[in-house]
Amino acid sequence: MSFTQKIKEEIVNSDIDLNETKYLLTAFIKYGNKSSNNITLVLENPLIARKIYSFINDIFQTKAGITIRIQKRFKTKRIYILTINNNVEKICQKCNIEMKNNVLKNDIFDLKTLTEKKSYLKGTFLTCGSVSDPNSGGYHFELVFNAKKDADFISNLLKEFNVNAKILKRTKKYMVYIKVSEEISDILKILDANTALFYFEDIRTKKDHINMVNRINNCEQANQDKTIQTGMKQIDDIRYLKENDLITLLDEKTQIVMNYREKYPELSYQELSEVVSLESGYKITKSGINHHFIKMRELVNRHKKKSMTK
Predict the structure, then answer these.
(1) Which residues pair with 30 in a beta bridge?
(2) What is the total count of domains within the chain?
(3) Could you give phi then psi for residue 90, rounded to 5 degrees?
């Protein structure tokens, strides 16, 4: 079972009262109806189909007809079709859906309380929502609508929960989507999908930890590479000073640092200062090490410049 299906099952299995169910069904009918003559809802999950059937009976006191079809495209699966032929106009009035010329018209619904808004979002997600499994790749949440006004309405509704979704036109449909993991986590809270939320947060935490470790390792590797490159440049300077008999122009302490650099070309300035202080008795800091190497480099540059002018 996909991560999306698990979330949807968790939504319909959660404790919701009749008022919440009404707003959930309203969104489900608005965005899920497949017919222009009655209310026809097509579902693939048997548990969700049973729950929606039960909700319709509880809220509207109307039994929906059930048709089961076997679909053999790519792989065999069952499709559950719920059809409401009776009291359609009454149901639409109760859900504030305008019925005009026997066609359902998706007018924007007036949602007042936080509970109504959350329930409406639950119904919307059940109908046209999906979330990628965080363990399989990136983070992606989407809701797909036929009309832009529906996408705009849901996008604005999500903003009331501090969730900033984007809208993308895809062929003849409009997709409201989110790729920010923190905001997807917030949506799972809104949907009261706590089990899915814990799973999502667990995977997200592990990914963040792995990314942090990788960044630290990359940084350490880059620093190590930089240290080795610096050490090799200083070895070249020392070799140049020796080849041109310039060592005696340096003071005794600089020569001590120079000798230890030859012995330990891979050490950082901090590590080299500790070794010099411990083995030679010359107490020196990291900045002191740097100061002596600057003196070496300046002597090399002066000599090269003088040699070029001759």
Answers:
(1) none
(2) 2
(3) -65, -40
- Indicate which CATH number applies to the domain containing 64: 3.10.28.10
H/E stretch holding 190: helix 181-190
Per-residue pLDDT at 187: 92
* Within a domain: 200: no
238 & 170 share domain: no
Range of the structural domain that residue 16 is part of: 3-192
Backbone angles phi and psi of 75, in degrees to 5: -145, 155
Same domain, 7 and 104: yes
User: Do 175 and 141 lie in a common domain?
Assistant: yes
Q: Are 98 and 92 in contact (CB under 8 A)?
A: yes
Considering the entire predicted model, what is its pTM?
A: 0.66
Q: What is the DSSP string of 222-282?
A: HHHHHHHHHHHHHHHHHHHHHHTT-GGGS-HHHHHHHHHHHH-TT--HHHHHHHHHHHHS-
Contacts of 52 (CB under 8 A, 6+ apart): 12, 25, 28, 41, 43, 82, 126
Sole residue written with tokens 């007809």: 65
Q: Residue 243 falls within a domain, yes or no?
A: yes
Shared-domain flag, residues 251 and 162: no
CB atoms within 10 A of CB 100: 9
Mean pLDDT by 10-residue block, N- to C-terminus, for the chain (310 residues)?
A: 89 83 86 77 85 84 81 74 80 70 55 88 91 86 89 91 90 90 91 90 81 77 82 88 87 89 87 88 89 90 80
- For residue 263, how many other CB atoms are within 10 A of its CB? 10
**Residue 177 neighbours by CB under 8 Å, 6+ apart:** 140, 141, 142, 143, 165, 166, 167, 168
